[in-house]
Amino acid sequence: MPLRHLILLISVLFVFGACQDEAPAESDPPHKRGNTFVAQIGAQPPNLHPINSLTSAMAQQINFFTAQCLTKLNPETYLLAPVIAAAVPEISDDGLLYTYTIDPAAAWDDGKPITVEDVAFSLKAGCSSVTQEQALRGFFSIYIKELQRVKGDPRSFRLVMKSNYINNPFLMDDLPIMDKRFFDPEDKLGKYSVEQVLDPNSKVGDDPEVQAWGREFNDGKYGSDPNFLKGTTGPYVVEEWLPEQQIILKKRENYWGAKKAGKMFAQGPDRIIFKTIADPAAIELQLKQDEVDVALRMTTDMINKLENDSAFQTQFELVSFLRPSQMFLGYNMRPSSGLCPAFQEKNVRLAMGLVVPADEIIQDFYAGKVPRIASPVPIKSPDYNKSLKPLPFAPDSAKALLEAAGWVDHDGNGSREKMINGAWVPLSARLTYRSSQLAEDIVQRIIYQARNVGIDLESNPVSSTVQPMSTHNFEVVLSAFSPSYLPYDFQQHWHTSGIAGGSNYMNFGNVEIDALIDKSNQEINPEKRRPMVMELQEKIYDEHPVTFICNLATNMALHKRIKDRSAVDISPYVFLNALED
Description:
ten-stranded mixed β-sheet, Dipeptide-binding Protein, domain 1, D-Maltodextrin-Binding Protein, domain 2, 3 domains, Dipeptide-binding Protein, domain 3, alpha+beta
């Protein structure tokens, strides 16, 4: 599945505008900043390396403007669109051969054409075992067999796939095309083919010359030093990076796509400044002082407050829209020793779902502006199963389910127990979540309602550096999925192959469901696939490994100096490169 399925959405903000030859003072009001716009981001990315930052959502929002791929899911249409490629790939009748042709105009900053050799190098570099980011290697080695050059045509090639897969057409969306001359001037990877590098048993990484190349490629300067943030193509380049303060992009000179139509290619502002501001009060102050033009992922509290601020409303427009991100309560269906075994039982999972005060959470924390959901498929997708209805808040029904399953208050302490293997086992578990005030407030509502029916939940906040779901070391977890608008792939979170240390965090599934997932992933005709997708959603709904609480929304503020204040609900959210006064 495409790499973007791994990436959980991280809040970020943008900006655009006009500018002079020197970088403007960010404290100047917008009309004095010229053709420069300032965008607020909640935290700076770890780096902007074209490969080693691929699993950082923050980095990808910035790299959208500085690095290009062959194709990209168009954030406006949700359709596959050519970028460096002249067109979307031509697919053979058997679905195993994808033919790409690079746009004849596509060139590096010095005018040299982008060729198949750059694509082949990018594939090998992105999938090499010696690079820091191994996500691409994991994906591409599963789906891509080899790259075939077209004799006599340095701009055309074929990707040979190992099998049919619903998202094969989108695989190249995740690979920034890099200038081989910049990143591999001595051609260390040149003696190996793409097929050799992608081979799961590849020994390419054992080559001392390749290891030396990898050490250089992974050097931190290629991710943070503007003098080395080169070798890609896009409308902008990094001009300056002040750690924890701001990242400044400027127009790329000799940009090959300057004359191409579409917002993805636009090169409007002279500069785009990404300014790091994390505190909500500081964001609000910076907006009111005209220090920021675009703020993304504002809190609901901020929106509610600023909606009633007439002075703010004269300068900014508040925009909210649904994004493909789903808050849920998840249950470990196959807990390891020492964890509560109760959530192996369907009745217990359903009982928990019936005491989650979802409507109350939506009203109190999201101002009633986000919808309930009942499926992992994005609610805007044509594959979303609308026949599935979210569970109601029904504590009495939850009690009945628990009683029927043998969970009773045996000792009169207010919490339920069950006789298992000759011993009374308490219905007691930790509710794990990423520590934040919002999450804590939501968790306390859930704990209160669960205890009212005899389920003894304990708050278990963890820091951002802890990954309890990835180790499957939890009993109940409050978290979020962030799928893309590609055809939904059930493999990652719902196939039993992901139970042993994989991404099937709830340890859900069986042989029958696995077979249906496998079949659906090989059917590239969306109309033939849809009944399978509907059935899979029904099976997940019926077994209830998670209680979906709501779809989440993005709240933004856009300065009214911006002519077109439209936004999209996937990265980059605002086409900063296309903004105009």
